[in-house]
């Protein structure tokens, strides 16, 4: 009896994030899921209702057109695979570029460290759209990069980057790099430098000490950062739309096309649901498991 | 300086296994170690004792190779190691916080150093278990450091730093992370293990009891310099300065002038005492010079009756008494107003009933109790 008010307080403390997640994540997703089982129709909204009560009979019609099309039309399957591939390559690039950066920042003097962190965060002060437009200006055939390379005589003809997959990779890595650096930095800055000294003391050369001590201890940060890059890149729309060519297939663009160009809401909803259920849910579960395992290995007392 | 005090000679090691030669370490604007020279013999356990910021840790880190000496040279077994990186030195360190790798098992922690050396797999296994058995941790080989108690972690750290059979073992505040209760027991165990292995060891500590329990010889450091170096008994019984006398153990300091200066004894007149101090050793200071005299609390006896001798006693009132268990700690205010500390063993207290607070008492000590301090 005495505990009742305490447990109420606890519920009140934990409730806001759950309410938030239910209102703005679960509920919208259920709406989308509902639409994905509807059929196309002209009017407002542009899809049929799932349940109908007519002549004293409740009929629920689950329309699977979107899902059937998804798994039979090779275009959709190819889009999924291509999105995953692009997100995976982006993630690998972010790891390779971001790890040394995060490590360097974490090892810097505190004053320098803050300056470098501001440098990482600074791009967020301008809108992503503007920054992607800037990349168009750099990567275009008559853009900054090609002009510079030609001025130095390194190339005779402009490199064809804009409107290719390469441009999309550049844009994705550029946009998502901070999301990798920040969680990894937070992990690396906590790393006890005495562990590194102990490794040196026991005869490990710097590279070997890094591989056997720093890298395994920073894995939770690497995984967290990689997920923050991978998951949004899979569904990214703006960057492939603006930098990619017509043949750059990504889920985000397909969704956009179905939704706005074809006004096929059920199809767009099905694409979304399949992405969430097949890709993102397993990823999140994997990350949860990994981080928990690593934290247990790291010995939380 | 032809000092005739016993134990006052500079005690260098006989065979100079470790030789630190005029080593200086200057950080951006702070001199951490001022031209320090020291030698440590083979198989010796040597303690660097000092309060925080005295440069002892910097010196240890220079021996390990984590810090580079600004100038000076360090030799180990007749080879210069001054500029060697830590991974090339035959030196291993047990860190203050142990610095065990949290993602590795006890076994992997101990095997780490051998793997870096490229020791064959089956030899690694036997040497790891040999080291773990030495510290009685063989049964815990599969555990992670976080699953061990502080004392067990310390043993693993010791095994890890011994398994490579280093020429020199460094201990950084080896007991500071342990509870006070298990410290003393662990100190003795650690010394037993070190003696068994026969490794040369330099340890750093701020705890004088720890240094005295564990070390064969010790150096008291202050402001980047060695103030006194010798066996724990020498340093305790014959401190060479007021700083050392106060830092190593507690003491009563009297100031006075030398009135009798003979080769085998001196007599010192102090305003703080009603009777002169008689010291049974000669000093190098001239007659009439102002000196300080140190008398340890355990050397002072507390009586109700006036001593029959002419020297080495004083009169006062008990101002405070604290039972410490095996002994009682008295504070006695002398007629001069000075507070003197005396520790009286329990045994002595039982025989005659102990003087109480506010009682008039006499304090007295034998001729060999006092030490004249040159500075």
Structure description:
The complex is a heterodimer of chains A (301) and B (375). By secondary structure, chain A is an all-alpha fold. Chain A has 12 helices and 2 strands; from the N terminus they run H-E-E-H-H-H-H-H-H-H-H-H-H-H. The longest helix of chain A is centred in the N-terminal third of the chain and has 34 residues, at 74-107. Chain A is globular, with a radius of gyration of 24 Å. In chain A, 31% of the residues are buried. The model of chain A has no long low-confidence stretch (mean pLDDT 89). Chain B is an alpha+beta fold and 375 residues long. Chain B folds into 2 domains: 16-243, P-loop containing nucleotide triphosphate hydrolases (Rossmann fold, 3-Layer(aba) Sandwich); 253-374, OB fold (Dihydrolipoamide Acetyltransferase, E2P) (Beta Barrel), CATH 2.40.50. In chain B, 24% of the residues lie in helices and 32% in strands. Chain B has 9 helices and 20 strands. Chain B has helices at residues 56-64, 106-117, 121-134, 150-162, 180-197, 208-214, 232-237, 242-247, 346-351; strands at 18-27, 30-40, 45-49, 71-76, 79-80, 91-94, 168-172, 200-205, 217-222, 225-230, 252-261, 266-269, 277-279, 290-295, 301-303, 313-323, 327-334, 339-345, 360-364, 371-373. In chain B, the strands form 4 sheets. In chain B, strands 6-7-8-3-9-10 form a 6-stranded mixed β-sheet, with helices on both faces. In chain B, strands 13-12-11-14-20 form a 5-stranded antiparallel β-sheet. A 5-stranded antiparallel β-sheet of chain B has the order 15-19-16-17-18. In chain B, a hairpin with a 4-residue loop joins strand 11 and strand 12. In chain B, helix 2 crosses helix 3 (121-134), helix 2 (106-117) packs parallel to helix 4 and helix 3 packs across helix 4. Chain B is elongated and about 75 Å long. Chain B starts with 17 loop residues before the first strand and ends with a strand. Chains A and B meet through helix 8 and helix 9 of A and strand 6 and helix 2 of B.
